[in-house]
Amino acid sequence: MSNTPAPRTRQLNENTSALEGTSQASLDSVAQERRLAEEHIKARSPRMAAEPAGSVVAQVTAISKRFLGTLALNDVSLKLGAGEMFGLVGPNGAGKTTLLRILATLIPPDSGEVVICGYRLNEVKKIRSVIGFMPDVLGVYDDMLVREYLDFFARASALPAATRDYAVRETMQAVGIEHMAEQPVDGLSRGMKQRLCLGRSILHKPRLLLLDEPASGLDPLARLELREILRALQRQGTTIVISSHVLEDLADMCDRIGVVSRGSLICVDETKNLIEEQGTRRLRVKALGQSEELFQFLKDSPEIDGVRWDNDHILFRLGGNQEQDLHELLKVLIQKGFPVVSFYEEAPSLESAYMNVTRAGEGWEVAKS
Length: 369
Known about the structure:
The protein is built from 13 helices and 14 strands. The chain is of the alpha/beta class. Helix 5 crosses helix 6 and helix 10 (271-278) packs across helix 13 (350-361). The radius of gyration is 29 Å and the shape is elongated. The termini are far apart.
């Protein structure tokens, strides 16, 4: 007769004895920890309806800030809606970073009021639990692995121990660096470090994400991938504020644009409206020979301005807004004997709209036609 079942019987008896020796309070504690872990994992799922449509995530009212007598922000007011992507543009020193750092609770305004997700700026701990901030200068610990780096910030964000590993894995996947989990941070490229710092900013699923020059130094492919990551975050309900000099990216991503100049928010509008109303109508022409003569002819024409070279093309602005104006100009060029091989209109861009808004704000005369 075989004695094979005996060890199994002993194992069951031992497990039963162990459970009998466990207090009910301990069992309840374990069950409670599991429930909390499950709730936290559910809370980390996309927040498609976390904020009702049209609700306000951040309200900035008349804030000003000086540094040693220099006015960095002057009476700035702004309202950010749930799930919108908002772009901040302006020259260096205009006040964009100062505004972001105030929203991130890193510096206080001298005057005015800021409310983020219902919390005032003096409620620092509560605000930091619902925002993420990616500064323009990357801060990484080079002696850590990617996974260790994110785990460190997960702990700093007070994520529960039961779900910390899950949060780190989910974040690495979201920013596309899961295959580099065991790589040292100091071996990462600029683009991968940008992704890592973005991951650090979204570990705790912030409702408001603040990004200061996130595309700085990235190649075109890395910029495209960054745009897709940010669009995915927006679809999950995250409100995103981006300060950037890469206007092409902002025009493609942002719902609204705010133009900052000399510490003032001089224009806020929907991206499409801003481009259509403030952008410049430009024409591009190329001739097969006689290019210098064509350039001078356009420059001497009273209805044309802004004439400049762009490689072998000539760019210029034409007065009037009718298609007939384009037809008449092309007819004149051909009658004058210029061998035109390319002649077309460029759509207004965010770059031209930005230049027109900032120049108008500084008292320049702006031609938009």
